[in-house]
Amino acid sequence: MKIATYNVNGINARLPVLLRWLKETTPDVVCLQELKAPQEKFPEAEIKEAGYQAIWNGQKSWNGVAILARNEQPREIRRELPGDVEDTHSRYLEATVNGMLIGCLYLPNGNPAPGPKFDYKLAWLERFKTHAAELIASGKPVVLTGDYNIIPTEADVYKPERWFDDALFRPESRAAYQELLAQGWTDALRKLHPDKAIYTYWDYFRNAFGRNAGLRIDHFLLSPAVVTKLKAGGVDQFVRGWEKSSDHAPVWIELAD
User: Fold this and answer.
1) pTM value?
2) Is 147 one of the catalytic residues?
3) Catalytic-labelled residue, pool 106, 177, 199, 201
4) Which residues does the record give as Mg(2+) binding sites (predicted)?
């Protein structure tokens, strides 16, 4: 079972790139973030023609998450992160696919920090940690994946000294990520590649992709019931080099049946 996550940075603007990548790599499950499209503008017909059933939670102009499954309909569990009924941001979607519970998330960026946006990020993280702890306690096979907007360690960023004041790299964000790991979640890519420089995002400016001046902010957290099935994982970095591509690259893992 191959599961991927991809921040598409506008699904309709990047649709040719998304469809080409789906055709070339054929993941079984795909979590998408930053759809930047209202519910009715999701390209359901084109996704279906590519062989995928989908559920999605859109939002005009920003945010938005989706879960795609090849030749199978994802069974939706929830389309919001519990804990704040007034939070209307489309940032979380949860479903089961082939017996696996998949949580797709687009965590707030939080910049500028400090400030209200960073406060929102930290509050969202607290809610996420609470929900993640409940999922761990369930004993179910769970994958929590998406754009976390967190750089976990200095090994996950090109020239970390330039990022210390950024919301993605502030101590509070990194501590929250470590607290998730302490619950029993495993960072899949770091388990597979403990010492490798891995990036999943490159800014559009200053030739960041050409210089490989990137960040690792798109993550897979696996529950104990899933870790034992982890076989492989990586980043489809080549997609970032395609014309009109997102500033993120798809990230994937492969699990034993």
Assistant:
1) 0.98
2) yes
3) 106
4) 7, 34, 147, 149, 247-248
